Amino acid sequence: MLLKDEPDIAAGSVGAAADEGVTTAREAASVADANFDSYARDALGTGLVRGAATTLQVNITKRCNLACHHCHVESGPKRSEAVSEKIANRVLELLERNPSLEVLDLTGGAPELSGQFRRLVTGARALGRRVIDRCNLTILYEPGQEDTAAFLAENRVDVVASLPCYTAENVEAQRGRGVFDKSIEGLRWLVELGYGDPGGDLVLDLVYNPGGAFLPPAQAELEATYRDRLAGNFGIRFNRLLTITNMPIKRFAHDLEREGRHGEYMSLLVNHFNPDTVAGLMCRETISVGHDGQLYDCDFNQQLELGMTGPASSIFDFHDAAALTGQRVATAAHCFGCTAGAGSSCGGALD
Ligand code: SF4
Ligand code: SF4
User: Fold this and answer.
1) Which residue from 91, 108, 253, 296 has the highest number of Cβ atoms inside 10 Å of its Cβ?
2) In CATH, which superfamily holds the domain spanning 9-339?
3) How far is the CA of 41 from the centre of ligand 1 (A)?
């Protein structure tokens, strides 16, 4: 059943933060020179540096069966970049050498489309690591992916699944026609395999991101609404809802520029800078690796080709993840997307 009469969270009508909207062009001009490093320094009392890394996040392919409006990777069916066997081997070698890297987080594109996906999953699981698959759900129905859901369950892979709304209208405005029904079917399939059971070990988290130039609603409030709607209408359970802010880069930034709203969105982010989010920024504990093995502080920096500040620029340049601790994080204006309102990271809100 499609829920056409739901509150329009894609237009920002639900939740404490969503009613802020974009601000005026005059306010945008006043924040144009805001410097993220100085905001972060004021919040922390020191510069923004990396802490101990616990997660290796690898963008294993830019190919995707979808081509969403907000995609910061600019993924789509025509992209072909993907990790080689050599890079995958090095990722597993680094995990073996660094027990402190507890999590292998596989992202893309649609990571399942990479020829190295299953090797990385089974290799990391054999090393006792938690593995995350950032799954768009519809991929489970693509030719050649018929056994992917079962593979994920067998290997106890955590699934972090994109579902930017619990209504068809909003999901399809962002991700394309037919995506909502397939996403719901994908979620049902995962739930049948045991995912999302609070007493089980098959983790199913959902990801919400706004359908436009506004901040996400409060995470806990929205999670309760998702839980209610998805259980009531589709019999779907899940573990957590993660709210993620649209970053002002790549496809979403181009949309904003086309609409003449980029400055206003930046103003919204800067004006809602929350100092309490800075200590928990994901760049402090994540090592982001590109399909070509290059190192970054996060996936957003990766898409901007904003490399790490230290001497190591690729996964072949270091052996000990601890060597990166204390290194200054590479930042730019887009970083305000992580610190606005309740904050944003691959693990959801920060405050
Ligand atoms: S599903 Fe994810 S990776 Fe694919 S186009 Fe959409 S946002 Fe990008
Ligand atoms: S964009 Fe990346 S580097 Fe900047 S604050 Fe966010 S996680 Fe950190």
Assistant:
1) 108
2) Aldolase class I (3.20.20.70)
3) 33
